[in-house]
Amino acid sequence: MLTKDVHRNVVTLHKKRDFKGLNQLFRTIPAVDVAGFIRPWPLQDRIQVIEELPVAESAKIFSRLPYSGQHELAGSMGHENFVSILIAMAYDERTRFLQNLPSEEANRMLALLPKERRDKASRLLGHRKDSAGRLMTPDFIAIQAQWTVQEAFAHIRTYGRDSETLNVLLHPSETKIEELRKHRNIVLHVDDTVPKASTLFQKYQRTVLPVVDADRLLLGILTVDDILHMNEKINTRAIQSIGGNEALDEPYLSIPLLRMFRKRGGWLVILFIGEMLTATAMRFFEAEIARAVVLALFVPLIISSGGNSGSQASTLIIRALALGEIHLNDWWRVVRRELVTGLSLGGLLGAIGFLRITAWSLVKPIYGPHWPWVALTVGLSLVGVVLWGSLSGSMLPFILKRAKLDPATSSAPFVATLVDVTGLIIYFSVAYAVLKGTLL
Amino acid sequence: MLTKDVHRNVVTLHKKRDFKGLNQLFRTIPAVDVAGFIRPWPLQDRIQVIEELPVAESAKIFSRLPYSGQHELAGSMGHENFVSILIAMAYDERTRFLQNLPSEEANRMLALLPKERRDKASRLLGHRKDSAGRLMTPDFIAIQAQWTVQEAFAHIRTYGRDSETLNVLLHPSETKIEELRKHRNIVLHVDDTVPKASTLFQKYQRTVLPVVDADRLLLGILTVDDILHMNEKINTRAIQSIGGNEALDEPYLSIPLLRMFRKRGGWLVILFIGEMLTATAMRFFEAEIARAVVLALFVPLIISSGGNSGSQASTLIIRALALGEIHLNDWWRVVRRELVTGLSLGGLLGAIGFLRITAWSLVKPIYGPHWPWVALTVGLSLVGVVLWGSLSGSMLPFILKRAKLDPATSSAPFVATLVDVTGLIIYFSVAYAVLKGTLL
To answer: CA of A316 to nearest chain B CA: how many angstroms apart?
Structure first.
């Protein structure tokens, strides 16, 4: 949501090592964006920014750093500075920081807090992980039922502290509204998708955001509970699609059976027809199977390993695309990562497969006299099939998205089908090369 | 969140057909709960409740009914009553209702609205589905930057309308707080999980909820943006697990390759070792394959069909369990549904498989002289394997949850592995029974 100017300014000031200028600039932009700017900087630069800002501000920035960054800073910055940040953090942010530490270290940190705060903080850590108790803040203002609205406002003005929701109430009645408008740049565009809107609500911790058109004309407001609802629907659709269903759009127990049959039957038939190619591929190698039946034994093992590695890769990429962690033009970076990962995973399974056949054969000659060549065939095929599964599994979501389709569409079974057919070709080709002259 | 007393009262009053009493009671409980109560009632009873409540209240109840219920009411209740409900609905709720109607009918409904409201409403429907523009409400109060806080409050009091967030501001300063506390029963318990909390935030459309302990002592507050964030993490973990990964807990592009290798390699090896049983099963039928190589041709087709139907069933159940749509003790209802669905889907694929082999064989005798028996074997095996895939895929999440494990854990590939091994046994057993005396 920041303008390009701000980005350019930060880069220039940092290059000039003008930390005074940086600190001035950082006071005017949201803490989460400051955290984003300084995250990749050298440790000393990060410390300098954090230590020189007012503690209220640096506590917010510290809270929005990823856990690894927090840990590094905590261990390297001045003790006194760190203690004041720890004290100034919001309760829920502090819980999130402390719960990732080894319990001994967390206790050492808790001991640094003033008594009342320490007690509350350690009580929060006592609740089960991912429970409401672990996530909440005990930092609320209680008002009494018998008070009037006026009395309640007066109480809030006196005892309330800075918070997104209370901002307006905490200022004297004569304050001009424009003085209160911090970070007013955060708006949704009318065409923003639900995941995009969801990211902004989370990043800036808002509960309501204005919606504007291309001319930045205010059209309406969007509240976060609607986003929560839509997000759940979208995730349901994604999970159901990954499993090879058409989205049910109704609860499992109440959808009529005929409709469920149609929602599942459609994709099942498409995948079945695709999978028929395996029979065609197998028939192509029928003569080889007849000559060396031992080859047939490993067909399910090999194609399923390709399918499994394909499912892994495709679900990782689908989710990363949905969260906006990767974009269409990242495909080449993904290919390189999957090349390395696919080769190593294939090597691992290949080695296990090779050793398994070797071990059995040393005990009992169940795979015939040419077992070393069979073991080699299976091992090499696994490397190829797992590599191919990882590559095609990671690329399919890109292709679907490029074609303006939902990347989640039936991807896992779809990849499995693709890899089944090509896996057979890889397997029998390797077999032909390795076993020519012995078994074949 | 309603007490058992309220439930009992509603049932009693409805049984006595005391609609006056019901309407009195319904004014004191949240609209979403009223919608829940009346949803299963006969149409005439629903109409009576909706028509006799003040229109502001009935518009809210109408908004919280599922689409099918809204449609039914719209077509059956008094025209005038329906028009006033349509006018009284919030913009975003009306968009949700209208977007599900055929466009002709939606236009007819729009024409019923007063001009200004009609224009705004049809503009909302003009935005892309699932975009911020489609979800927002244009019903906001604009305040000017140069106003003081006091002036802004005065403006809001004069022009603001009822809304969750503005409640307190809209009342004269002398109003007692207790008069404003509607639906105060809605609280989170300190042990509530994120999905449970998420459901309550959505259902009651709140942005902040109090968190209490077992004695209903107020411990803190939880804001919905934290829930949004946790929900996203939980959904990421679920999707990654379904694909057979250990949750990465880091963005795809930034996780070190060695850690990614470990997160994927662990499950891949476990599944590979499980899948080795297919080689054992195949070896058990080695003699049959040697005698009838044609049997080997259909192995990938049959086991993958089982895997696909298993993935479908398991992802549907995982999601329904996560959303709380089904619970552990619903397992028997699920078994009955999957029996019917699995048999029908199996029958469908079996028929296609049978016809495919028949069709090919009539053109060219590629499956040998006994092709009718081969076709029968494949067809029957598909029925069995798809049925078995659906049943085991739907039951595995229950078993994992019962064992206090995450139902999403590697479920799709896990089911596939299970079904691969058992699918082979089904296939070769059917083959043995059908082909005994001909091919075998």
So the answer is: 6
**Inter-chain residue contact B152 with A132, CB threshold 8 Å:** no
Distance CA B332, CA B386 (A): 19
Residues of chain A contacting residue B351, judged by C-beta atoms under 8 Å apart: none
Strands B208-212 and B218-223, sheet pairing: antiparallel
pTM: 0.82
Asked if A135 and B311 come within 8 Å (Cβ–Cβ), the reply is no
SS (H, E, C) A411-435: HHHHHHHHHHHHHHHHHHHHHHHHH
Answer whether B173 sits within 8 Å of A304, measured CB to CB. no
**How many Å apart are CA A407 and CA B280, to the nearest integer?**
37
- What is the side-by-side strand order in the sheet with A218-223? A188-189, A208-212, A218-223
**A135 and B227: CB-CB below 8 Å?**
yes
Cα distance between residue B10 and residue B279, in whole Å:
62
Give the pLDDT of residue B313: 94
Alpha carbon distance B310, A262 (integer Å): 16
Q: Which residues of chain A, if any, have pLDDT below 70?
A: 1, 161-170, 180-184, 410
Per the CB < 8 Å rule, is A201 touching B145?
Answer: no
CA distance B62 to B74: 9
Test the A interface: residue of B250, B258, B284, B316 with most A CBs within 10 Å: B316
B352 touching A (Cβ < 8 Å): yes
From chain A, pick out residues whose CB is under 8 angstroms from the CB of B356.
276
The amino acid that residue B19 corresponds to is F
The shortest CB-CB distance from A265 to any of B294, B296, B345 is to: B345
Question: Which one of A194, A225, A312 has the shortest CB-CB distance to B206?
Answer: A225
More confident residue, B165 or B15: B15
Q: What are phi and psi of B132, to 5 degrees?
A: -55, -35
How many CB contacts within 8 angstroms connect chain A with chain B?
485
| Main-chain phi, psi angles of B189, to 5 degrees | -90, 150
* Structural domains of chain A, ranges and CATH numbers in brackets: 4-135 (1.25.60.10), 140-184 (no CATH), 186-242 (3.10.580.10), 259-435 (1.10.357.20)
Gap from A20 CA to chain B (nearest CA, Å)? 30
Of A219, A188, A218, residue with least CA distance to B145:
A218
Chain B residue whose CA is closest to A163: B223
- What's the token pair of residue B37? 């109560």
Q: What is the pLDDT of residues B84-100, one digit of tens each?
A: 999 999 888 999 899 98
Give the B window 42-61 contacts with A, CB below 8 Å. Answer: none
Identify which of B92, B219, B307 has the shortest CB distance to residue A133: B219
User: Which of A141, A209, A275, A360 to probe the B interface (max B CBs under 10 A)?
Assistant: A275
On the question of pLDDT at B378 being above 90, the answer is yes
Per residue in B314-352, pLDDT tens? Answer: 999 999 998 888 999 999 999 999 999 999 999 999 999
> A249: closest CA among B436, B68, B73, B113?
B68
Write the CA distances from B261 to A317, A341, A350, B269, integer angstroms.
Answer: 15, 6, 15, 11
* Structural tokens at position B292: 């009838």
Judging contacts by C-beta atoms under 8 Å, the chain B residues touching residue A165 are 208, 223
